[in-house]
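Entries read sequence, tokenised fold; example below:

***
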Amino acid sequence: MVDRFLRYSLEHQRKIAVIVQDGDGIRKTNIIVTRMEGDVVHYVTSRSKKEKSLSREQILSAAYARGDDGDTMKQENGKF
């Protein structure tokens, strides 16, 4: 299911919420996936437009970001 949200963000340039485990512990953040290469996910956040990367194994969960219902037709029709 996580891969589905990663592809959604990549294909539609939409923000998603992810739960990540890294050296600092477990945290929740919103990201926009810019590219995926094998098991590495490259992303940007709204705070930092500098591209960062994560191992796919570090992403524990993913979901739509707050306010996003996943209806891409709204965005394509200019209603978003």
